[in-house]
Amino acid sequence: MDVSSAALLGAGIAVLSGIGAGVGIGIVSGKTVEAIARQPEAQGKFTGIFIIGAALAESTAIYGLVVSLLLLFR
């Protein structure tokens, strides 16, 4: 296996981090809806925590995309 093939394989593997981000955001949003259903008066607190959690999960996908692009265009 030459270097360019290994870089393409690594780029493909790096993009797979988007799957984890999707699962993470799904879990966070599901638990947020569940928490709001149990305590509707605390919706503001739950929404802020949800946004932080979703941003942290999405950042892993962005890091994977950046690594993939670095490997493709090196």
- Overall average residue pLDDT: 91
CATH topology: F1FO ATP Synthase
Main beta sheet: none
Instruction: Based on Cα principal axes, name the global outline.
Output: rod-shaped
Task: Write up this protein.
- By secondary structure, this protein is mostly helical.
- The protein has a single domain (3-72), classed as F1F0 ATP synthase subunit C (F1FO ATP Synthase, Up-down Bundle).
- Helix content is 88%, strand content 0%.
- It contains three helices and no strands.
- The protein has helices at residues 3-15, 17-38, 43-72.
- It is rod-shaped, with a radius of gyration of 17 Å.
- The mean pLDDT is 91.
Write the layout of secondary structure elements.
Blueprint: H1 3-15, H2 17-38, H3 43-72
Quickly describe the structure.
The chain has helices at residues 3-15, 17-38, 43-72. It is mostly helical.
Key words describing this protein structure:
74 residues; F1FO ATP Synthase; mainly alpha; rod-shaped; 0% strand
